[in-house]
Design a protein that fits this description.
The chain is built from 4 helices and 4 strands. It has 124 residues and is an alpha+beta fold. It has a single domain, classed as Endonuclease I-creI (Roll), CATH 3.10.28. A hairpin with a 2-residue loop joins strand 1 and strand 2. The radius of gyration is 18 Å and the shape is globular.
Length: 124
């Protein structure tokens, strides 16, 4: 009986988190950070993008694994997590000097958001 009451208490006391809307909150970045993120980093990453792999819940973008690209991806991901908090963002290096990948995934609807909001990242 005590275990059941404890479990119910934990469930009731557990915080609930509301999902953020599928909208880029540009105000989450300062004017200078917005300019850097959208006008400098995004175009630089689009130019370096080697491929895109579709996932069941998002996309994986492949990049060269050089230091400059890694720094760009890392800085971009740091800004993106602020303006689009509904993304799961993963940066991954393949072993033995392989590619660098950026995964953007999340709950239902994220994949469609990425395809629309990142249209310029996708071929024709």
């Amino acid at each position: 009986m005590k275990v059941v009451v404890l479990c119910l208490t934990l469930l009731i006391a557990a915080p609930s988190f509301a999902d953020s809307p599928f909208a880029c909150n540009r105000a989450a970045l300062s004017a200078q950070a917005r300019k850097r993120h959208f006008d400098e980093l995004s175009p630089a990453l689009r130019a370096r993008k080697k491929s895109i792999r579709e996932l069941h819940d998002g996309f994986e973008f492949e990049f060269p694994s050089d230091t400059v690209t890694f720094q760009l991806v890392s800085e971009w991901a740091d800004g993106e997590r602020l303006c689009c908090p509904f993304f799961d963002i993963d940066v991954h290096f393949e072993r033995e000097g392989g590619s660098l990948s950026l995964r953007l995934t999340g709950r239902e609807g994220v994949k469609q958001f990425i395809r629309a909001d990142f249209a310029s990242w996708f071929p024709g």
